[in-house]
Amino acid sequence: MLIRGGMFVTHEMMVSADIWIEDERVRAIGADLPVPPGAEIVDASGLLVLPGIVDAHTHLKLDTGLYQAADSWLEGSLAAAFGGITTVVDFATQSQGQSFEQALANRLAEASESVIDYAFHMMVTDVPPGQEEELGILPELGIQSIKLYTTYRPIYYADDATLVRLLEAAARYGLISLVHCENDTLVTAQTAALVQTGETGWAFHGASRPPLAEQEATSRVLLLAKAVGAPVVIAHASTGRTSLLAAEAHASGQIAFSETTPQYLLLDETLYEGSEPWRYILQPPLRARAESEALWRLVSDGRVDMIVTDHCDYSVAQKMALDDFTKTPGGLPGTETSLLLMATYGVAAGRLEWPDLVRLMSTNPARIYNLWPRKGTLMPGSDADLVLFDPAAEGILTADDLHMVAGYTPFEGVATKGRVVSTLRRGTFLVRDGAPAAKPGSGAYIRRGPRFWD
């Protein structure tokens, strides 16, 4: 297959070029490549040719034990493909008393219907003191990252002593730790105070998890990680200070990164005062507009490392079941809209250049989580994962036009600039000219090997 006439974009440059694809891989890139006899030619004139988006923080078919997200892996992965995502790094959750092998096997069975490729972080919940060597099996399973939490008692929460020993053990086995940072004591106390005064409606959700809780936990996790030499990623930063702490640690020589999401860049806490606050229940919550602007400055300056989605596809019925933030599942649908939103409010708005977007949404996630150069780039030998994107198209986001199963989007009615025309995974169309073309189960588990960090 020859992709002809498009504007080829990498994390470093934009150049008009053709791309030759054969046996699932990129084989050649250049101007006016020769056409082998019988080759399929795809006309990309007027389109950008982007590496497939690597969404390194998703929750497809999420089951927390309390809530089950509405999507299947087939539905969720197809919606992601409509958004230009060709690879996700999702989560395999270790339940109490369960081995890592069992946790991965369960998740692989669920993901077997995926149309996009996938890797996993291991959510570590049950490694008693003295058994940290259990983490050593993860590289053999193709897993190079773990997930830890400083909140959510009693299942996910890790106290400081647990954080230290798991961070140290992860580093010893060449793993990087993705950490959800919120001070559990502050969150618990603030939530209890609201419950005591009967202020439990959706409108009070933002007040239940203050910015200080995130910032304090981030500072503490970075300090503990530095003490034991552990590489760390700060998850879904919702305040500028959160990402700045990680950027300062990185600048000092620590292996530390941060991610943020479109919701924290584009939405703010005034939406909790509106008529539909149920649309915006997530952890951490939306913040003041000043925090969104602070995050944008850090993104534009290159001091945020990744833009991910933290996608959770709960349905409208699940979200609206009770006007009580303590009983509403937290998380927003986002895979299908993330590239479009960042193209609109990042690139078209002048906050980013196209190579910046590729770096934040494809190359950096692939490099940090050891998928690069197979994923996250288009170069000879890499997987032929790519997006044909029309930067001139204009539209309005509405749930009726989306393929995510939630039935709503937190970005309803938002104006957009651009459109995903086609998405290819390993040289096969998943979406072609706006229509689905994917074969269920054609996605693959991507085992991650020995790792490196820049």
List the helices and strands and how they pair.
Layout: E1 2-9, E2 14-22, E3 25-30, E4 41-43, E5 48-51, E6 53-55, E7 58-59, H1 73-82, E8 85-93, H2 100-111, E9 117-123, E10 145-149, H3 160-172, E11 176-180, H4 184-196, H5 205-208, H6 211-228, E12 232-234, H7 240-251, E13 256-260, H8 262-266, H9 289-300, E14 306-307, E15 311-312, H10 316-320, H11 338-348, H12 354-368, E16 386-396, E17 415-425, E18 428-432, E19 435-436
Helix pairs in contact: 3-6, 6-7, 7-9
Short structural summary:
With 454 residues, the chain is α/β, with parallel strands linked by helices. The chain is built from 12 helices and 19 strands. It folds into 2 domains: 2-50 and 382-391 and 417-436, Roll (Urease, subunit C, domain 1); 52-368, TIM Barrel (Alpha-Beta Barrel).
Question: Can you put this structure into words, describing what you see?
Answer:
This protein folds into 2 domains: 2-50 and 382-391 and 417-436, Urease, subunit C, domain 1, CATH 2.30.40; 52-368, Metal-dependent hydrolases (TIM Barrel). The chain is 29% helix and 22% strand. The chain is built from 12 helices and 19 strands. The chain has helices at residues 73-82, 100-111, 160-172, 184-196, 205-208, 211-228, 240-251, 262-266, 289-300, 316-320, 338-348, 354-368, and strands at 2-9, 14-22, 25-30, 41-43, 48-51, 53-55, 58-59, 85-93, 117-123, 145-149, 176-180, 232-234, 256-260, 306-307, 311-312, 386-396, 415-425, 428-432, 435-436. Strands 1, 2, 3, 4, 5, 16, 17, 18 and 19 form a 9-stranded mixed β-sheet that branches. An 8-stranded parallel β-sheet has the order 6-8-9-10-11-12-13-14. β12 (232-234), α7 (240-251) and β13 form a beta-alpha-beta unit. The protein is globular, with a radius of gyration of 21 Å. The mean pLDDT is 97.
